[in-house]
Amino acid sequence: MATCNHWRWRWAAVLTVTVFAASMTQAQEQPCGSGAQSAICFGAIDVPDDQRATFTLAARQAIDAIHSREFAEDLRNFATRHAAHGDHAAAWAGVDPVATIAALKAGVPGQRVATYGGLRGWFLRTFFGNMAYDGSAEGPILLNRAALPRSAPSIANTFAHEIAHRAGLRHPHSSRDLATARCEPPYVIGTLVEKHAAGQEWRADSDDCHLFRGLTDSGHQGT
Question: Which CATH class is domain 31-214?
């Protein structure tokens, strides 16, 4: 009987370690881009299990979009046509699209993601519309579980938005004029990433800068 109990405890210990290791592997998943971007990877994506596949896809979409020629073209077109005029212009002062894209690319490798929720998440979502924030420079980007589930392109939008914050870009009007803030750099960058992630299904809506209503069917900015 003693020998039987001994082996039973050993098997229980092995099973516990295996389950723990598997859960740690899931928490430390590092999604990468596709094709030429397959060596560019986020850091750990620590999210609820039922959201893991969506977040993994969103990370891939964000990486692919940020590194795409089309994204660079759209960002350059927006800055050229719209960044110098309007209440949002001050936030674009000194923003160079080429340098901005380089900073976004530099912010992707190893970028960790996690979530927060509870009463805090509900309160910030309900009264301030908060969906995520960039947190500390060393920590993960934090997405509000009260704003989930969301589509992969929408989450890719948020990734790009928060990485833009870490690159030093801001939307100073967000606390007093959200319509203007949506035309400021982090929001515009997020919208463009979502546009390229969603492909032909994407349509500008009320959460996007009103200037995106000028996008043509071909996907490039109209006049």
Answer: alpha beta
Radius of gyration of the chain (CA): 21
Q: What is the separation of C-alpha 131 from the centre of its chain, rounded to a whole number of angstroms?
A: 11
Residue range 35-44, pLDDT digits in tens: 999 999 999 9
The C-alpha angle with vertex 81 and arms to 79 and 86, in degrees rounded to 5, equals: 85
Domain boundaries, the chain: 31-214
Partner residues linked to 143 by β-bridges:
115, 132
Contacts of 181 (CB under 8 A, 6+ apart): 88, 171, 172, 173, 174, 187
Residue 190 contacts residue 161 (beta carbons within 8 Å): yes
Distance from C-alpha of 21 to C-alpha of 189, rounded to nearest angstrom:
37
Q: What is the pLDDT of residues 44-82, one digit of tens each?
A: 999 999 999 999 999 999 999 999 999 999 999 999 999
